[in-house]
Amino acid sequence: MPKLTRTALPALDFSVPAPLAARKPKRLVAHGHTRNDPYHWLSQRKNPAVLAHLQAENAYADAALAPLSALRETLYTEMLARIEEDDQSVPVKLGEWMYYSRTEQGLAYPMHVRKHIVNGQWASSPEEVLLDENAEAEGKPFYEVGDFEVSPDGSLLAWAEDTRGNRQYRLRVRDLGKGSDLRLRRDRITSLAWANDNRTLFYTTEDVQTQRSFQLWRHRLGEREDILLYTEEDERFSVSLMRTRSNGYLVLTSGSHTTNELRLLPADQPDAPWQRFAARRPDIEYELDHYRGTLGDFLLLRINDTGPNFRFCITPADDWRPEAWRELLPHDDDVVIEGIDLWRDWQVLSLRVRGQQTLRVTSLSDGATHDIAFADPAHAVEIEDLPEWESPFLRYEFESFTTPDSTFDYAPLAQQATLVKQVRILGSFDASHYSSVRLEAVAADGTHIPISLVHHRDTPLDGSAPLWLEGYGAYGIASDPWFSSTRLSLLDRGWIYAIAHVRGGGEKGQCWHDGGRLQDKPNSFSDFIACGETLVTAGYTRAGRILANGGSAGGLLVAASLRLNPALFGAAILDVPFVDVVTTMLDPSLPLTIGEYEEWGNPQQEADYHRLLAWSPYDTLDERPYPPVLVEAGLHDSQVMYWEPAKYVARLRERKGSPALLVTNLEAGHGGASGRYAALRERARQLAFALAAIPVSES
To answer: Which residue range or ranges hold the Peptidase S9A N-terminal domain (predicted)?
Structure first.
């Protein structure tokens, strides 16, 4: 059993003078109100002085972190030692092939491969490499695969790749029989889907300026010109493609953060017109799946027209009128219907029952229904997208704070789950050495805010332990308890780790999301603070012993919470934080801005402008003591522009509020470094900063 490590650690070195960004006053006027932004010039990407400043910040961070170099290497080595570098995913059947991906020791990226099924057997068949990401990434500073689609007959592979980190993907198509690539290149790809003829490929593309996915195209192999089929004119909406597991339809979703509509195309009629299922209505979202077989031809519909938690309906495939919909499961205040999955014999609803995830399985032959039971109350579970329509079993992935990612094949008739793979944690890991609990904080308005928490069982719960508190709270995205092998390096050193499930996320459905967006966004910040205070009151830690962490919109959450109650926190790590809210949201030419109005508000409207200005972290930083802060950015980030964290750190220094470090990855974007080894290096830096900023040895 790993024993708690309490060795003395080196301190951060802030003796080297920090780089000070030049002050170049810029008057920003809106609605008769003037802001003075001295660091606005940092948004001039092509200005050599900007790159020089970012490089100076990186050098300063390197100097401050230099005493931690041995610790960082120790952390990297132990985290790497827990990973089974030679690994393989659970194979998935599609047609006459078994598909899987695998990794090899020393190689940063996976290989996507398959084996042919012969007389029901495949294990001894020769392996065919479809895509070796290591070969594709060679000589490139960044590599990431986006959409990855094999044609229905298995002869062609279409995939989208990003080689800069800016999430701008290029289409490539490979003839798998010949092992050669077609002379086909399309840029700014956002999603892909094949028609049943194996030669028609549909794809969506993004706008050059705003990077909004807005157009649907059809490409037919052998033809020079592609056909533009649809353009989404509403700048709040983005489009994406999918193919139903039944192979009956291609589905084009056009959606905003609160509203969507779907268009369907029979997958075996690639030249037919796309038909709209139902006209979009404000605040109405829905999802479809398709069944075609011995029981008939029908669509299953998840829709929130009678309540925010959605209801479940069925309608004939040839009659989409609302009058034809038959309700199978009504709206329930305590049950959120999160998704539908359909196979020939089974239907699965992904649910949240009073905030807890579960899977509800229905036999289509007799209508018998049951929920899959999970012993751990704090968990994350997800149905896996088995593409084979006639699959005799279901597959889901389960994990928790103490259970590594585990893949189960589930036999619905026997109601029996079989573990087919659990991610191996090498070394001395034993789940019984860690304790996980779920508790609640009470927000200022009386709302109960869930907290998920894990610690080593030998960690003293007397208030002395440092605690890592993470949060997100935006877009209705749930932050469920997941397993992390890198987190063990904290837990084994006496840290406690917790997630604050603040409003704005999706842990309790649309109402939870609505409670932390637009005019109610400040609830997210007060929820986060309430969670921290509750953990202090409950004796898990003390004020000043909490490290706050959040990324992107979670970085906004942490930055706003720091300003409201800096004494509660002993340090913070902000990953690509969205902190310059007002200036960014006033610029509709930036990626994502217009579509984000439904989440944050539109500051071009005066009321929204002043509401956002009241909590925007960059605009509200004042002169007071702040704890040490590590801020991370990506030069090619297309979601949170690099200048937001750069400006935030510059103003933080100006306010004399914090010893702040800014680290900008000059070769990556929103997701950080590509490749598993580079990502581990970045994680080691974060953990070393945390360990040095809040030493465990304090009592």
So the answer is: 21-422
